Each structure stands twice: as structure tokens, then as C-alpha cells.
Amino acid sequence: MIRIEKALLLLWFVVNLVIGALTVHKYGMSVDEPNNFQYAADTLDAYPSFFGTLYEPAYNPTFDGHGPAFIAIAGILIRIIQSLFPNVFTPDIWHFSYFVTFQLTGICLYWLTKRWFNKWTAWGILILFSTQPLLLGHAFINPKDIPFMFLLTLSVVLGFRLVDSVKAEESFIVLEGPIRILNRKFKAVDPRYKRKFFISLALIMGIALSLFIFSRQINSLIEQIITFFYAAKPDSWARRIFDSLASHSSNISEEDYVTKALRRTRLSTPSTGNRCLGLKSEPNDVTQTRGGASGSEADGSD
Hints:
Layout: H1 2-23, H2 33-45, H3 69-84, H4 90-116, H5 119-131, H6 133-141, H7 145-165, H8 176-187, H9 191-213, H10 215-230, H11 237-245, H12 254-265, H13 270-277
């Protein structure tokens, strides 16, 4: 019975992939996909050498907050497919990769449903999930929510399986003993070292609190320092130091350097970053695909 169930799931998965392959060309690009394609290319191109020291991609602030894990993995597979089929339409391959994660999400939902309900209920939820028009449309054009939905659902399934694999008679880690030992050793420490420890701890807490309270002033100071070095004369010592640290300084604006520095220090807020870049909330144009026809207007926002 288990073999039949697995065979039916495999058949369902293959049939859906065939349907997806036949219909993927009907979907245009969403507005945020070009950035994702470029992000994947920059991520993969950042490692031409073993330690990735031979390449420095151009900084793009629109990538902030979106990790490259999924698009980098998909990008590797897509490059392999493009080497085998050079004439294939690249956005279609990306859309199909999102669709594959959507189908894998359905299998994860099937496993979760079977944990509490019977097989008929699990199949009903799987079919209902796979045929919802709104979800099915996003399965092709949403480059972030669909892969994230799969990874989240998969983590829940693996978490339940991990808990189920733990037997009641197995031993668990108890921290009571180590804490008691540490407490006893701490009491035996020389009072002078204890005093130094508490003073150091107070200094660290004070510095952390100061960074939080005076974050705006520190942001302003960082902006002024970068502006000073960036605007220095080409033959000055300040400009020579800046050029030695920033190899692409002639191609990158001062505002981008300020924003990047603030994000590196983790002291900036969204309003600070936007103020430095002079950004305004304006809708993106819909990217055009084959024959100049506009693609889907779904933005695939998180």
C-alpha cells in the first residue's frame, strides 16, 4: 500500500511538471524578477576563484534584505540548462523553477495532513492546493514567496519527523549540572578578576546602549566622513586612501557608499537609507517580454 501511495504521488508530481512545462511560456515577467536574475548572476560571478577575491560586483541597494540562497542554486541549474539548450527563453526556466518548488510544497502539505487525517483528506487538500487559480498563477511568477513557502513547509515536516524519531528512553541534555559547576567555579575566582569582569561587562553594555541612543548622530558622522574622503581632490592623501579601499569609486556615487556604510554598521533605519539615497516610493514599470508584450503585473512582494 505504501508503494502504491508513493507511486501515485510520483505520478501526480510528474503530470503536474509536464502541464507546467507546456504552459510556462504563457506567463510574463513580474516587476521584481530582473533584479533577482541580476542578483543571482552577481552572486555566482563573485566566486571565480576559490576565495572569491578576484571579483567585486557593483553594489545595488535594491538587493538589501533578500538572501541569494534559492536564486543562486536555481541559477547554477539554469546555467547548465542554457549550456545544453542555448536557444531556450531564460525567464521560462526561472518560472519553471518556481513552479517546481510549488509542487514540492504540495507534497509537504500531503505529509503534514497525513499526520492528523486519513489519506483521502490528504489527497483532497493536495488537489485543492494544486488547482487554486491564484496560487497556481503565483507558482510561475512569484520568485520569492513560492520558494519561501516550500522551504518553510519543508522545515515543519522535517521538524515533526525529527521529533518523532526521538525515543522516550533516549537521554536528553540537562544544563543543571554544567550551570552548577560554572557557578561554583565563578565563586572560587579571585575577587579582583571578578571586578575586572563586571567592569568590562558594564563598559560593553554602556557602549552598546550608547550606539543605540546616539545612532542618528553616529550615522551623520559616518556620512560626513565618507563625504569628506569621496569629495577630496584626486591628488590629496584622503582621496588616495579612499581609492585604495574602493576600487570602483569612479563608477559608484557618494550616496551609494554612504548607504552601504550605514548598512554595514547596522545603525541605519529605512528612513535614513532613503534620505541618503534620495529615494522616493515610485511604482516600477512592468517589464516587457516577448515581442514587447507586457508581462504579468503581479509584483511577487514579500
